[in-house]
Amino acid sequence: MTRKTIAAAALLTAALANPALALERWVRIHNSGNASIWSVQMTHVDDGGWGRDLLENYVIPVGSTATLEPDRHQGYCKFDVRIIYNGGREVELRGVNLCTARDITASDNGYTNVSY
Questions:
Q1: Rounded to whole angstroms, how far apart are CA atoms 114 and 105?
Q2: Which has the closest alpha carbon to 59: 80, 31, 94, 91?
Q3: Count of alpha carbons within 13 Å of 102, Cβ hemisphere only?
Q4: 89: nearest Cα among 48, 41, 37
Q5: Is 10 a domain residue?
Q6: CB contact at 8 A, 97 and 78
Q7: Local structure of residue 86 (DSSP, 8 states)
Q8: Is 10 left (phi over 0), alpha (psi -120 to 50) or beta?
Q9: Would 8 be classed as within a structural domain?
C-alpha cells in the first residue's frame, strides 16, 4: 500500500467512526435586508468567542448570497452565527445545525430564517 492509500483509508475509518466528521457544514447566507452584510462569524456552540470574519475583505450586497463554512468544526454540527450589517446592526443565531441547514436568510431588521 502506498502512503496515500493508507492515509485515505485512515480518513475513511475516522469518518465512519464519527459520522459528524463526514458531514458538510457549508451554508448559504442570503441578504434580504436593506444594507450590505459586512461580517459573518460562525463558531461551534462550545466556543466562547466569535472567531474571524469569514467574509474577510468581501461584503454580501443587498439581495445577494454567499456560501460559507466555519473554519474549525471539530466534529460539531451546532454553531452560533453572527451577521453584522453596514451601519453596525447585528443579527445572532444560536445553535444552528450546520450539518442539516442549507440556507440562512437574514435581514438587518432582525428577521432570520433557517432552512433545513
A1: 6
A2: 31
A3: 1
A4: 37
A5: no
A6: yes
A7: T
A8: alpha
A9: no
